[in-house]
Amino acid sequence: xxxxxxxxxxxxxxxxxxxxxxxxxxxxxxxxxxxxxxxxxxxxxxxxxxxxxxxxxxxxxxxxxxxxxxxxxxxxxxxxxxxxxxxxxxxxxxxxxxxxxxxxxxxxxxxxxxxxxxxxxxxxxxxxxxxxxxxxxxxxxxxxxxxxxxxxxxxxxxxxxxxxxxxxxxxxxxxxxxxxxxxxxxxxxxxxxxxxxxxxxxxxxxxxxxxxxxxxxxxxxxxxxxxxxxxxxxxxxxxxxxxxxxxxxxxxxxxxxxxxxxxxxxxxxxxxxxxxxxxxxxxxxxxxxxxxxxxxxxxxxxxxxxxxxxxxxxxxxxxxxxxxxxxxxxxxxxxxxxxxxxxxxxxxxxxxxxxxxxxxxxxxxxxxxxxxxxx
Length: 375
What we know:
The chain has helices at residues 2-7, 24-28, 32-44, 61-78, 81-96, 127-144, 147-164, 184-201, 204-218, 240-253, 261-274, 294-306, 314-329, 351-371, and strands spanning 113-114, 119-120, 165-166, 172-173, 292-293, 339-341, 344-346. The chain is mostly helical.
């Protein structure tokens, strides 16, 4: 996986990059529905249409954040100096490619986005991409004792606080500036950045804002332990990888935010019970297993690793998923397949969605094993 990414400079396609085609304005007639249909058609096509549509491989900030985290973890697992150099080189790239329109660094995707919830232009900073880059900076600051990466993480936290926080009696972080719907995984990813970055630099105000945002999503937890995608009728559904984001974020906050042990226990119990088959294979939805999407593996491994010491058998669950990922989704050349649907496999190489999160997750498992006491 590492070799595959390095040969390509971690550039590649994305499931949602259809609107990067120069033909998109014509094919979509410029309408929101047309843009959504084209995005989904290119994403789900059994044949990779991107060369035909002249969509070039590109570098994505969230993907590079994941990659940088993976290199930090590889260094931590075995004092890999080449991995440290790669981690810092990619963090430097992210620092140089940040959007600083507001004065603090934020990051977005390299393609226009059109969903049923919102639309926004390429490179518009969003909470998800910014949070994953900030996570990489936090990990590097701690592992390398680096003031530069600590300041980059703090800058990202301040960006989220000033630009994405919906203030009020029950504050939360928006997915996108100007969009007021609360998306719980985005809110908690941002909250975890503020809690971790605030603790790193000794900024209690950042920790406090993160704690308040955590409370908003914890209050949305249902009796069965699940937390819906968002508030409102259109967001009542639950899936595997968004739940993984939610649980990992709560787990990394739990050392500094009180009252999370109960919600964490109920959340992991629900996730493990409803979103995995008996053999450990992740299910996309509680009532629908297909497709088997590689993104579920990377996010689930990280979420189980974050629960070490809190959930019995968490490391073993992560290791079992890693073995499945390698057996079912890893291509011979080192990239990770997109999805399996019955007997058909979509083998398109996506960096942000599959290969980069898998690289980070497997490096995290190596790091966790290296930190275990000798038996």
